Structure formats: C-alpha cells, structure tokens
Amino acid sequence: MADLKIKPLADRVVIEPQEAETKTASGIYIPDSAKEKPQRGKILAVGPGNKDEKMEVKAGDMVLYGKYSGTEINIDGKDLLIMRQSDILAII
C-alpha cells in the first residue's frame, strides 16, 4: 500500500492489523467466531510528532498494541487502525 490516501496528524500512526492465527501450535483450527482481535500490526504511515513527544516508530515497523486501542477506519476496502503512538506497547 505505497499510495496511502491518509496522513496522520501529530503523534498518530496508521496500522494495518495482522490476521489472527487460524490454527494453534498443537494443530487445532480456531473458528472465526472464537478468534480474538489481533494485537499486532504493521505501521503504514506516521505523523510528524509533537513538541512533547518525538516519533519512535516509522513506517514498516511491526508493533504490538493494546487490545482496545485505536479507531477502526476503512480506506480503499482495507480495515486499518489509527492510534496515538502512546497506545503502542512495543516494536517487534
């Protein structure tokens, strides 16, 4: 998604959530109704930051974020999240 039509402001980032696992390590398949919301994703766009907080993340980073973090948006048929950098827990 090189031509993203959204530019986040201040300390916000746009994240593409990764698909939830469909199979456990022991080989059991998880039905769609039992899947949890993914908590990891790839950063697609980063805002410029603000005077109090410089941006630690960059586009292309894989990150972990809180279960209920961010706002869900749909751009060009893709479900994305927009959230503050402070909602990101770690870069992986």
Structural write-up:
This protein is mainly β. The protein has a domain at 12-19 and 37-91: 10 Kd Chaperonin, Protein Cpn10, Chain O (Roll). 0% of the residues lie in helices and 36% in strands. The protein has strands spanning 12-17, 40-46, 62-65, 71-75, 78-84, 88-91. The protein has a six-stranded antiparallel beta sheet with strand order 4-5-1-2-3-6, with no helix packed on it. It is elongated, with a radius of gyration of 14 Å. The chain starts with 11 loop residues before the first strand and ends with a strand. The model has no long low-confidence stretch (mean pLDDT 88).
Helices and strands in order:
Blueprint: E1 12-17, E2 40-46, E3 62-65, E4 71-75, E5 78-84, E6 88-91
Antiparallel strand pairs: 1-2, 1-5, 2-3, 3-6, 4-5
